[in-house]
Amino acid sequence: MITNQPNSIDDSSQGLKSGLKPRHLTMISIAGVIGAALFIGSGSVIYSTGPAALIAYSLGGLLVLLIMRMLGEMAVLNPDSGSFSTYADRGIGRWAGFSIGWLYWSFWTLLMGWEAFVAGKILNSWFPFIPIWGYMLLVTISLVWVNLRNVKNYGEFEFWFAMIKVVAIVLFLVIGSLAVLHLWPWGDASMLGGVTHLTSNEFMPNGFSAVITALLGVMFAYMGAEIVTVAAAETNNPAKEIRKASNSIVWRIILFYVGSMFITVCLIPYNNPLLKDPTWGTYSVTLTALGIPEARHIVNFVVLTSVCSCFNSALYTCSRMMYSLSKRGDAPKSFASTNRNNSPWIGVIFSSIFSIIAAYLTATESMNIYDVLMLATGTVSLYVYLVIAISQLKLRKKLEAEGKEIPFKMWLFPWLTYVVIIFIVVALITMVIEGTYFKEVSYTTLLAVFIVALGICAQKFNWGKDSLNKTKQDKINLTDHS
Fold it and tell me: Which single residue of 4, 67, 366, 394 could bond 361 by disulfide (Cβ 3.0 to 4.6 Å)?
C-alpha cells in the first residue's frame, strides 16, 4: 500500500544518491518523449494513415497524458526507482510487479541493441573506415561508462542531448510554419503553398481502423515519458519534480509531435514513398522539399544524438528497474550493489548485454535475427500502460477507503481510468483483427505470458523473499546487538 513518504528517498537504505538537478529532470522529461521515431518512424505512420495521422498522434498523446497523470498520482505519494513496477506490486500483487518490471527491462535492453545499430550505421556512413559493429561497441562502452559514474553525469548528458533535439524541432516548426503561411521563399513548398496536401487529399484514406492500428507505432514513439518518474527518485524533491513533469507533458506532445505531423501533412503528400523509407524519414523529406541543403545529413546528426539519448536513458532505466526488483527480492541480490559513485554497476553492465549481442550479429551479418527479437517489444508500451491504469485504480480505492490525503489526483476518477483500460484493450484487439501488427502483438504477448508465469511462480513459491527477509532480519539483529 502506498503511504505518504518524505520528498527524497532514503539514501542509507536504497544506496542511490540524489544527484539530479531540476534542469536535468526538465530535459529528461522532454527527452523521454522525443525519440528517433519522431524524426524517422513517424513517416511510415503518415504513409499508412494519411493526414489522419494527426488523430493517431493526438489519441496517443491523450492516452500518455492520462497515463502520466495516473502514474504521477502514485509517484508523488511514494517516489521510487522501480516506479510503476513497485506500484503494481502493491496494488495488484507481487506477480504483477515482477512481471511488468522484467517486461519493461526486456523492452529497453532489446531496444538498446537497435539504437546502437542505428548509431553505428550513421557513423559508418560518415566515417566508413570503422565497421558498423565497431561503432556499436564504441557507443555501448561509452554510455556504459557514463552510467557507471555519478547519476549527475547521466543527467548532464541527457540535458545536452535533449537540447539538440529541442532546438532541431523548434527550427523545423518555424521553417515549416513559414512555408504553410507562404513566407518561405525556397523549395517546392513555395510553389505548392499552404495546407495543400491536408485539404486536397482524403483525410482518412484507409479508414478509422488504420488510425487505431497506427496507434502501435505512435505508442512506440511515446514510450519513455514515464522515465522521469524513475529519475525523479534521485532528486532532492522528487514529488515536486514529478508533479511538474506530469503537468507539462501535454504541451510537449502537442508542440513536438502533433505540431510536427501537422507541418508535414500540410506540405508533403501522404503517399510520398520516401516517407516510409527508413533512410529518409519525416524531417528529411520535408526539409529537402523546402530546399534545405544537406537536409538528410543534418537530420541524421539529430537522429544520432536522439538514439544516443535513448540508449543512455534506456540503460539508466534498466539498471534502476533491476535495482528496485532486487530490493524487492524479484531479481538477484547483486543487482542492488552500488559502486563508489552510487551507481548500480552490475545492473548497468548486465543491461547492456543485448547491445553486445547486436554488435556480434552485425559483425557476422546476422542482424536479421535481431529483427525477430525486436518484434517482442512491439506492444510492451500498451501492456505497461494497462498495468499502470489497473494499479492506480486499485491503490486509489484503497487510499480513499483508508481516508488518506491524495495531493495529486487523477481527473474524473474512476471513470477516466476505466476509459483508458477499455481503450487499450480495444486497441490491442483491433490490431490483432486488422493484422498489420499481428506479429508484434503476438510476440509481445508470448513474452508477457512467459514472464507473468514466472511472476506467478515467484509469488506462489516465495522466490527470493526468504533470503531478502533473512537479510533484513540480520540487519535488525545487528542493530539490536550494537
Answer: 366
In the chain, the percentage of residues whose pLDDT exceeds 90 is 42
Count of domains observed in the chain: 1
Buried b (16+ CB within 10 A) or exposed e, 61-100: bebbbbbbbbbbbbbbbbbbbbbbbbbbbbbbebbbbbbb
In DSSP terms, 20 is beta-bridged to: 235
Mean pLDDT of 162-182: 90
Q: Is 473 inside a domain boundary?
A: no
| Single-letter amino acid code for the residue at 346 | I
Grid cell in block for residue 80 = 521510487
Residue 74 makes CB contacts below 8 A (sequence gap 6+) with 2, 84, 87, 391, 392, 395
- CB 100, CB 89: distance < 8 Å: no
Q: Are 73 and 398 in contact (CB under 8 A)?
A: no
Per the omega criterion (within 30 degrees of 0), is the bond before 414 cis? yes
The string of pLDDT tens digits covering residues 68-77 is: 999 999 998 8
pLDDT bin (cut points 50, 70, 90) of residue 143 is very high
**Mean pLDDT to the nearest integer, 175-204:** 76
Tell me the longest C-alpha to C-alpha distance in the chain: 83
Which range of residues forms the domain containing residue 354?
20-460
CATH of the domain at 410: 1.20.1740.10
Is the predicted pLDDT of residue 100 greater than 90, yes or no?
A: yes
Whole-angstrom Cα distance, residue 69 to residue 409?
A: 7
pLDDT tens for 235-292 read 888 888 888 888 887 787 888 888 999 999 888 888 888 888 878 888 999 999 888 8
CB neighbour list of residue 475: distance below 8 Å, 6 or more residues apart? none
- Side chain identity at 363, as an amino acid letter? A
Spatial distance between the Cα atoms of 85 and 63, rounded to a whole number of angstroms: 19
Mean pLDDT lowest for which of 28-32, 80-84, 90-94? 28-32
Q: From CA 236, how far away is CA 319, in angstroms rounded?
A: 20
Is residue 3 a part of any domain in this protein?
Answer: no
Q: Is residue 481 part of a domain?
A: no
Residue 469 in any domain: the answer is no
